[in-house]
Amino acid sequence: MASAEVYPASEPARWKYLDNIRTRAGPLTNPDIFDGQVVAQNMENMKILVIGAGGLGCEILKNLALSGFKDIHVIDMDTIDISNLNRQFLFRQSDVGSFKAEVAARFVERRVKGVKITPYNCKIQDFDEDFYMQFQLVVCGLDSIEARRWINAMLVNMVDEEAVDSYKPLIDGGTEGFKGQARVIFPTVTSCIECQLDMHAPRAAVPLCTLASIPRQPEHCIEWAHVIAWDKEKPFPKLDNDDPEHITWLYQKALTRAQEFKISGVTYSLTQGVVKNIIPAIAATNSVIAAACCNEAFKIASNCAPCLGMPGENNYMMYSGNDSIYTYTFQHEKKDDCPVCGNLARELVIENPEWTLRELVDSFAVRPEAQLKKPSIRSESKTLYMQSPASLEEQTRPNLDKTLKELGLTDGQEIGVTDPAFATVSFKFKLKFKQAAA
Amino acid sequence: MTEIVTSQTPPILHGPSEKERKYDRQLRLWAASGQAALESANILLVNSGAGTVGIETLKNLVLPGIGRFAIYDDTVVTEADLGVNFFLDDACLGKSRSQSLTALLLELNPEVEGAWYPNTEATTLAALLTTSPTFTAIVYTYPIQQEHLSALAEYGEKHKTPLFAVHSAGFNSYFKISLPGAFPIVDTHPDETATTDLRLLAPWPELVSFAKDMTKDIGNLNHFEHGHLPCVVILLHYLDQWRETHGGSYPSTYKEKTEFRRIVQNAARTDNPEGGEENFDEAVAAVLKTVVSPPLPSGLREVFEYKRNIPAEQRSGFWIIVDAVEQFYAKHKCLPLPGSVPDMKAQSKVYVQLQNIYKSKARQDAGEVLQIVHATADGQQIDPAEVELFCKNAAFVKLINATGGDSSARISSSDRLKLVVDQELENDENAEAMMMPLSLLPIYLALQATSHVASASEDDILAEVAKVVPGANQIEKIVSAAKEVARAEGGELHNVAALTGGMVAQEMIKIITKQYIPIDNTCIFDGINSRCQVLRL
Amino acid sequence: MLKIWSMKKEQQKAENAEGAAGGKKKKVTAAQLRVQKDLSELSLGNTMKTEFPDPDDILSFILYVEPDEGMYKDGKFSFTFNITPSFPHEPPKVQCREKIYHPNIDLEGKVCLNILREDWKPVLNLNAVIVGLQFLFLEPNASDPLNKEAAEDLRANREGFKRNVKISMSGGTVKGETFDDVRRPR
Name one GO molecular function term (chain C) (predicted). Predict the structure, then answer.
């Protein structure tokens, strides 16, 4: 590609304010990595992935489109609900029921000329490494910890130290009421979402026996209806949290139980809140957090000012607006024992693909980094050999005499190895066949 | 107030209305009372400069459903607007910016009304301010004409309207709130972990007899009963025992409390199937936090000590209730009981009884305060619900902008700025040693230097800052801030405008709903280091 | 951070094309690896055993408990274990497959064991859970029950409760409720 192209790549009048900043160094700009002449062009060529088209996602799409990104992709499996309209400003009453990613993408494309947004109305788990490899940056606005952990593990595992393009910075935002956080993760370099799991307070659970025999709070009555009464009476084949009829059933059950114990405070709204674990959300907070995330994306992509997440620097911004405004921007330390970024797969050279599993198992006993006398081995989808419990050992014993090829193990496959002698660690290996199996 | 829509879908038993469903996620934060306040709010935005931060603020207010807004903006839409403002598109080029923005903002929420100026009815800001119904709050953005600024300040003073001044340029921004006087908040939504007063050291007869009755034969209770004594009852029982052996006094020093905690710990049974008792664990954990006579909270003390000089303040319901609570406190040496009881291991029936004992005492205390209120001049009209809310939250009541009503006693704002500058620069010298981040005041100074000009060079900015901080061009952080502000040439970065607009909207919501605690009074944002600082300027 | 972007695109495309030939290789997840480790450290003794309906799916299995002492001696009880991808941040879901008379297990098979719910921590492992289950049969707890009737019987009259356990375990009826026969063949 010709790099002598003049900046900005297109429409200088329109992007005047942006170019003021991104094409000229400021006092804190690192001159070694900044080149104002090519920034606009580089950003236009970048593919950026947005995960989530909800409260944060709508803001993120708008912000990225107005930050100079032109090729934006967005994944969200959800459809629009009426309760989204108080903050998800790309949606209208008439959009209720349509896919969020689809509607959001079309809206921003219409509003901001020259931006292409590709929607995917599905789950992030529907895509594999090849899909994620095409992007240079990932920005997440999710409400589920599970999805965050999934994409985090994906991006960390994609890192190939030999290929600089396999590092995909992940920027993640989250909100609750007037509070939120924005963080930047450079996979395997900074602390990752798994390292930071302790930043999410787990939802306090009430003992089942309290629900069953000594309820005291309206929430106890609702949880009882949800966990115990529903299973016992099964009024509908499957509980759908979004079906008002189902919520009403739970509400009435909870209300009756509350009356029985003279507990006050069970309402429809509380029932819905407890059953769906509703987190309060407003436009203003989404605006703050999404913009904090996109500001980092802009700095990473343009190098026109230092971003969060540089080695040894801050990578996490906490924001709280309940009592005045308070931000705490700090460095969250990487955890050496992190099950995701502290345990990357090492290469394991297989001298001969005709090896039996037994030969592989025995080979671990003499490997220098860990002499595993009783290794148990699995791949992602197959239990190859487990030393215990007895029933699994028996079931997997026949595999020992099969060759790796027969067991479907091929070049590049990842396996997990555990050994009771190493109580605190487990190992991941990526198989590398010496002579490619024919 | 949210209305009940009864049409269309068959109503489910006490199910939510269409509007309650739409606003569900925010009603969980500020309830119907906060929503009602928002819906009757009328907001004016005086928009200038690059013009994005004010619109992002309004977006965040239109979505949750303010009653109405007006935009005053006398510019036309240019190409540069389209690269930074989401609520404009190609079709708007060359048209009135306020008209275009209003149209696209109104799409966000059909329940909100909006108007744009200048138009034929009001051709100037002055005309708009004299002809419009009173505004609940006004936001204006920098750079602004001096003449507009004076008109707004005068309006704010006259109508007691909160003013929000906002400036966003490049990676930096700040906003400043000017409130018409001291601003009290009763419904502060304290953190859930904040302890409620259980008054264990000053129990009233009903509570005493309830606890005594449950523990009179504590040694002979079966495992089930013993393991379900509420921790409040356990603590009251052993406190009573302590007093008997300590000449009638309660454990007060740290040493005594740890000793007391050990006594409670040792009273737990371990010969049961579980090998311990959860309720005793709860009691042990609660000793240091609840076995105290709570001191007068600092926020409330500030309210009590606040010197009121404006007659309007003196007559307001809030201050009449404050006086009544102060009398109550003087008489009883404690605040009215909040009345809530945290969840604790107990049988359902016992817990509900305990709850009722606390609730009825809280009602009694609130009743006593109400009586005092009613006996005051102007106290008759005060809503008992307002008194009850105050009593419930008394420990967490907060006063913002507590300058004292006497304006002559107020320090001039430029003198105040000089004081804060000295202090912040001094703090910075020790910042590294104290592991504290550096002051963001230089950003404020640099932005403020461009309050009335479209753009300025580094030297212009430093010359302006030097009027407040002599030798500014020798102070590295100020020079750096000036460079960064100069780089923007008055232009906004959308992200920084959106972030700032989010913060301003949060603050406006807090002030309109009188819930949660607003900043006092300036918030500075640094988009390079991604952090804020709040200062009183 | 590095100059990740600029000119590396073409090179990357070439590498991708090469890598794609090998087909998609799924990675071992953190949850799977943790379960694998927990399983290889289980100490089942002679009163418990596992059964894996699909040995390749180690996230769901059945645990059999055969108490050799206490009131539930000579019974054979089974529990389904279902482990989510959020393990160990979420506890395993455990349910008793038989309808039994027990103060801490309800008629639908729900189990009230603190570490299966409110007291679960990621540092706990599957062994802690099975030890807890075993303990329930040795020391049924009447204090905060799931099956109120059984708990009241245990509180009021331990001998009567023992008789009821015997009756219920042989498929008999206690207070109008008929239970599953869980006696193990001798």
Answer: ATP binding
